[in-house]
Amino acid sequence: MAFTCRTDEHHEQILKRICEKQRITKQKALLHIVERFEEVCEARDRNARRVADLEAELSRLKKAVALKIEADKKLFNCLQKTGE
What would the pLDDT profile of 59-71 be if each residue is shown by its tens digit? Predict the structure, then answer.
């Protein structure tokens, strides 16, 4: 099957970088991208899940730190009052 691909300048530059990096023709670059589409989508989804997990963990850690700071302040205030 043959088709014509008319790219704009932005896409042309991306395709050119792929061709130079992989040392392949534009046709082979496009076929390579098509062949790897599912693999790339799976990796993207896996990375998105990992980012979401890390963001949730970061949120839990921030809450724990805030609670620790608040507990330290309360303890300091108690110690100040008992020392008076």
Answer: 999 999 999 999 9
